[in-house]
Amino acid sequence: MTNPKVPEVNAPQLDVPLSPAMTTALVIVEELIRSGIREAVVCPGSRSAPLAIAIAEADRVGRLRMHVRTDERTAAFLALGLAKYSRRAVPVVMTSGTAVANCLPAMVEATLTHVPLMVLSANRPLKMVGTGANQTIDQVGIFGSHSVCTRTLDQIGETCAQRGITEGLPADQVDFLRNTVGEVIAAAMHPTEGGGVQLDVPLREPLVPEDSAVVGLGASEIQESLSQGQHQATNQEQPAGPAGTQEKLGRPGGSEVDMPTVRKTDTDAVAIDLGKRTLAIVGEVTDRAWGRRIMEQLSGVPTMAEPVAPDAPEIPVHSAAAAMFTADTVAHGEYSAVTRPEQIVVVGRPTLHRPVARLLADPEIRVVVVTDTNTVTDVSGTAAAVTRAITLTGEVDQQWLSVCRAISDMGAEAVRRTLEESDEFTAIHAVAAVADSLRDGDAVVLGASTTVRDASRAGLPFSGVAAYASRGAAGIDGTVSTAAGVAFAHASSEPHAMRAPRTIAVMGDLTFLHDIGGLNIGPLEPHPDNLLIIVTNDNGGGIFETLEPGREQLRRFPDGSEMFERIFGTPLRANLGELCAGFGVPHRLVTTPTELALAIEEHAELGYLSADDDAIGSGIAVIEAQVSRAGRRNVEKAIREAVTPR
C-alpha cells in the first residue's frame, strides 16, 4: 500500500539558497516565536551553529532577546530564571556531547517545580551514535524522567538525504517540524504537568550559509510563508509524512498552539471545617494567581507561609515557633493552651521546616493537600485528601486564633531578641537587614540552603515582594545565573519604567562561588538591570553548624585531626572582591548590620555602589557581608531553646 501524495500547498522554491540544516533552524525559531517565546539563551558550538544563527537573526530584528553564555550549566540556569519569573518557555541552545549533559541540574529543578525550560540540543545524525564519531553521545533522552517531553527531529535530515534535497525542506517535513515544536512547548507549559523538555535537533552539513545576508532573507520568507498558513518547501515532490504526524499538538497552519487549561470547576472541592483547630501551611506554587486565590479563601485561618509562597497571609504564624504546634498543650505559669491543630491545609509544596514535617506525619492530624499541579506534597503518606479547590464551612474558633497569634509572637520575639543580644554578625542578621530593606515591587532570589530559612525567620513572605528559591531539588547550584534570569524577566515586566525594578539575590559564599561563572557576561551581551547580589560569607558551609554533623562530638577525630571543618565546614580562601573585579562587577565588603543596611539603601537610591569607580552604569553589584559561622550556631541554639515546648 502506497502513501497518498500530499497535495502542494503554495510551496514555492526559496529565493535564497539555504541548506536543510539552516532552513530547519529558521523554521524552529519562527515557531518558537509564534508560540510566545521572547527570550533565548545560546551557547557557542559548531553543530548548533544553524540554531545560534537563526536566533541571532531574530534578536537582530527585535523579535526575541538573545543571551550568549559560554558555560552550558550557567546558560541553563539563566534560562531557568527567565522562565521561572515569566512563566514562558525559554530555550537554551547548545552543541552535541557533554554540552547537553551540563543542563541536567537545571532540568531537574525545572521539572520538579514545573518551570518551562527547553533544552534545544543540536546533534549529529543519530546513526552516528556508537560509531566513534567526534563529539557524539547518546543524548536523546539523556535527562530521563527529568524531562516531561523528549522529541528528536532526526527524520528531517534522514528524509532530505534520502530524497537528495540540498536546499530548503519538503512541506511534509515542515509540518512534522512545526507539530513537534508545538508539542514540546505545550508539554513544557502544561498547567499541571509542565516542566523541562528536550528537543533534539540532528543537523547535517553544510551547517552555515555562504553569506550572512541570506539568513535574514530566508527568515523573512519563512515568516511570511508560515504567516499565510503556507507550507514552506523547496521540492515539488511532496510525499506524505509519517503516520500520526497530523495528530500531534502543533500549529501546522500557523494557528495558535492549543494549550491545556486548568479545570475551573469546583465540583471536586474538598470541604474544610473551620470549627476544627486549623492551621494552613503554604509553600511554593506554580500558578501564583491560583495560590493567591486559595490564600484569600483561607484569609481567616492562621497560616505559616514559606518565603516563596505566592503572598503574605492575613494571619501569619512565624515559622520559628513551628515546634510549638507539635505539643498537645503548652503551659506557661498557671496557664495552659491546646496547641496541636486538628487539621492542616497544605497549599503547594512546603519544604523548609522539620517541625512542619513532623506535624504532617502525625496520623492524628487531618491533612488536606491543595495543589495546582499533579505534584502532591505528602511525604509521610498521611494526606486525607488531595484537591485543587476547597470550600469552607464553620467558623474559626477565636481562642484558637489567640493561641496561634501568641505562638507567632513568641517566635518573632525569640528571633528579634536573640539577634539583638548577639555580639556576632551572622548570616541571620544579614538576611534580617535585607528583609527590612525590601520595598513593594522588589523581586528576591534566595539561596536554597540556609538563606531561604533565614528569610523565613526574618518574616518573609511580604505582600508586594515576589520571592524565589530553587527548592525543587534544594540544590545550591546555578543561583547567580537564576537570579540574573529573574532580574531580566522582572525588568521586562515593566518595560516603560524609568528605572528597572529591583531584584535582590541573597546567598551564602559557597552558593555564590558554586556559580561564580554566572557573572561572566560578555561585553556584547545584555546585562541585568538593577540586580543586587548580597553574599553572606561565613567562610564555608554554615548550614552544617546546625545539623547533626555539627555536634561537638563530631568536630574532630580522637587524634585531634579535623573532621567537621574539612568535610563539612570546608573553609575557603577565595577573595570575593578580586573575583568580582575580574568579571567587572562592583563589590563592597561590609562587616556589621548597619554597614549592610546603609549599602543596600545607597544602592536603592543611586542604582550603584558609589565607592567603585566602575559602578555607574553597571547593572550588577555585589555586597559581601562578612559574617560569623560559629556565631550562627549560637544564634540558632538560642532561638530553638526559646520556642521549644516545655
CATH class of the largest domain: Alpha Beta
- The total domain count is 3
Radius of gyration: 27 Å
CATH-defined fold name of the largest domain? Rossmann fold
The N- and C-terminal alpha carbons lie at a distance of: 81 Å
SS strand fraction: 15-25%
Tell me about the biggest sheet? 6 strands, parallel
Number of helices: 19
| Class from secondary-structure proportions | alpha/beta
Mean pLDDT: 90
- Which range best describes the helical content: under 10%, 10-25%, 25-40%, 40-55%, 55-70% or over 70%? 25-40%
Family: Belongs to the TPP enzyme family. MenD subfamily.
EC number: 2.2.1.9
GO molecular function: 2-succinyl-5-enolpyruvyl-6-hydroxy-3-cyclohexene-1-carboxylic-acid synthase activity; magnesium ion binding; manganese ion binding; thiamine pyrophosphate binding
Cofactor: Mg(2+); Mn(2+); thiamine diphosphate
Question: What can you tell me about this protein's structure?
Answer:
The chain has 646 residues and is α/β, with parallel strands linked by helices. It folds into three domains: 20-247, 3-Layer(aba) Sandwich (Rossmann fold); 270-415, Rossmann fold (3-Layer(aba) Sandwich), CATH 3.40.50; 422-642, Thiamin diphosphate (ThDP)-binding fold, Pyr/PP domains (Rossmann fold, 3-Layer(aba) Sandwich). It contains 19 helices and 21 strands. The protein has helices at residues 20-34, 49-60, 72-86, 98-101, 104-112, 154-163, 171-188, 213-227, 288-297, 354-361, 398-421, 427-437, 450-457, 479-492, 509-514, 564-569, 576-582, 593-606, 629-642, and strands at 39-42, 65-68, 90-94, 117-123, 149-152, 197-202, 270-273, 278-282, 303-305, 329-332, 335-338, 343-347, 366-370, 383-387, 390-393, 443-446, 466-469, 503-508, 531-537, 587-590, 620-626. Helix 11 (398-421) packs antiparallel against helix 19. It is globular. The termini are far apart. Residues 1-13 and 230-267 have low confidence and may be disordered. Residues 224-238 have a biased composition (Polar residues).
